[in-house]
Write the structure tokens for this entry.
Amino acid sequence: MSFHTIIEPFRIKSVEAIRFTDHAEREGALEAAGWNVFLLHADDVLIDLLTDSGTGAMSAAQWGALMQGDESYAGSRSFYRFEAVVRDLTGFTHVIPTHQGRAAERILFHSTLQRGDVVPNNNHFDTTRANIEAEGAEARDLVIPEGRVPALVHPFKGNVDLAALERTLRDEGDRVPLVIVTVTNNSGGGQPVSIENLRGVRALCDRFNKRLFLDACRFAENAWFVKLREPGYSERTPKSIAQEMFGLADGCTMSAKKDGLSNIGGFLALNDDRWAEAARTLLILTEGFPTYGGLAGYDLEAIARGLEEVVDESYLRYRIRSIEYLAEKLHAAGVEILLPAGGHAIYLDARAMLPHVRPLAYPGIAVVNALYLEGGVRGVEIGSVMFGRQPDGSEQPAAMELVRLAIPRRVYTQSHIDYVAEVVIAVHRKRDELRGYRITSAPAVLRHFTARFERQS
Ligand SMILES: Cc1ncc(COP(=O)(O)O)c(C=O)c1O
């Protein structure tokens, strides 16, 4: 049987109402939120594409697994089940649960970085960058040049520029304790990394004697792209491809809120005994005992089950196709989007859409706010507000001005996605009328979460 329509590979057992608002209500809500959609009340949002992190729907099997949670402080049965699933998938010796991805990052970086160190990555995500900079180290982005051009189509736009990595390791290697590769590359458009490229990074790390870590939040989506696009992988299961990816690394940080199909949780997994000991010491200080690490026993059960479900072929086929479907609709309507579609999100190219708004008047914020006002759709700016502030306090335009519409896992149906396409196309028609913004207040670190803005006239 071969049909064209790829359907949602689940049926809906429980529903949650969403609230319709009118334009005036949305204008009032956004003004009260300082024109920052992070500060909106979620009940005022109709379709929430702010993030795919922790916003997915759990399966009946995961909800059932919650009841199996063992809440013992030490040696919980749920931990051992979680550890076995993570070990089977990643092959790493030490499995350290954390309450989410950034806690794994903080623990890893605080126990391994010195002031003045350099950490290469394809593209650091905001929390990764912030946690590295908090240690006084430099987070250096070394994605391939194709990865910086939104309209350019390339099968593995998340790949690391191996020549640039080699230069960094050769010239500044004594300041590089580890190399990270983010799969898929969120800040660079949810773009995948090929196994061939990972092998190249591994070879350089071996040559210069460096540890290689994956930022593995979306490992299953990356594995699916490898299956679709990399020669020699089409007959392989997503799980075996993921195992090969992990097998090339020495460890990983993971936010289980993405491909763990869970609402909370994460882990740090690694082979190095000394680094693991240092990490566990810090874990006890800030997260909890090593067999729960800031999570409830039932969270560990949900993650264990989620990590098994996420590598299912029919799920991944539907997941990647539903995002591509939205990309095709927008592209056909002439909307400037990052190509090809990412694994978890569509990225609108706000710089190309609003050439009349200069980068430091935040074209991404202008588009995000217009989407909310037009149809109650919430996205997020990934541009100069998120990445423009430098460690010395100055401001530089980001490499790209993107608006990410991240699709929560197993939450919205095709008609929701059709509605989103209509809203984006309506905003696109009005793009010449959109104006920039000015920041009126912002914290020093991770300012995009809580900054307040005013509209430029
Ligand atoms: C690539 C990447 N790394 C790290 C994180 C941080 O994970 P968490 O939000 O669970 O702290 C995220 C979250 O969005 C991410 O996308």
